[in-house]
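Box 3.1 A note on notation
Throughout this textbook, protein chains are presented in two layers. The first layer is the amino acid sequence; the second is a C-alpha cell string describing backbone geometry. Keep the layers aligned when reading.
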Amino acid sequence: MYTRNLVIPALLTVCLFSCVSSKKYKKSQADYIILQGTNTQLTSDLSNCNNDKAELNRQKSSLETDIANLNKQIDLLKQNNTQALKQLEDLSVITSSQAESIKKSMENIGAKDNYIQTLQQQMARKDSLNMALVMNLKGAVGNMNDQDINIKVDKGVVFIDISDKLLFKSGKYEVTDQASTVLGKVAAVLKAQPDIEFMVEGHTDNVPYKGAGGLIDNWDLSAKRATAVVRILQNKYGLDPAKMAAAGRSEYKPIADNSTPEGKATNRRTRIVILPQLDQFFKLLEPKS
C-alpha cells in the first residue's frame, strides 16, 4: 500500500512534465514557422531593394549624361553669344560709306527679289495660258484616238503629235483628205490665238528612204512633210505664215524604240510645237526708264 502511494505521485509528476514540454515544443515550432515566413519576406524585400537601387543608379547615370549634354549646349550658346556680340561691336564701328554700301546692297536684294517674283508670275501666267490652249485643242479634236493625236505640255512647251497614218501614205508627203480635216480643227484653235508662233516638225522612223519621187533620204521626206502641213495651214485655213516655221527632223528624234513595228509607227509623226514667247521675258530684262 505504501509503495502504491509512492508510485502514483511519481507517475503524475512525469505526465505533468511531459504535457508541459509538449506545449513548449509546439509553441516553438509555431514560432519557428513565423520566423521562417518573416525571413522569406525580408529576403524578398532585400531583393526588391537591390533591384530598385540598380534602377536608381541607372537613372542617375542617365541624368548625369543629360546634364553633361546640357552643359555642353550651354557652353556652345555662350560661345555663339560671344561671337554675336563681337560682330555687333565690329558693326558698330563701320563708317558712313560702309553703311551706305550695305543699304544699297539691301536695296539691290529687294529689287532682285521683286524681279524674281515678277518672273514667277509671268511663268505662272504662261503655264495657265498653255493649259487653256491644251484644253481648247483637246476639245477641238474631240474623241480621236490618243495613239493618232497626242496633245501635251512638257517643260512649259505645248506639243501636238499627229501620227503619220492620219496625214500621209507610206513614203509620201501629200496630205490626205482625212488629215486635212484634223489640221482644220487644230488650225481653228491656233487661229484664235494670233500671237502664237509655232513650228511644224516632220519625223520618220529609221527605215532608209528608197529615194523615189526626187527625194534622197529621210531628211528630205521629213522636211517635205513638214512644209506640206505648213502650206495646208497657210493656204487652206489662213494662218499667218510669219507665225509658222517648218523643219525636218528625219529619224534622229525618236520617242519610241525603232526595233518594233509599234515603235516605228510611233516615231513616224508630225509634231506641231507651240513656241514660247521669249520676247516677253526679254522685255523684263530691259532696264526701266
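The mean pLDDT is 76. The two ends are 158 Å apart (CA to CA).
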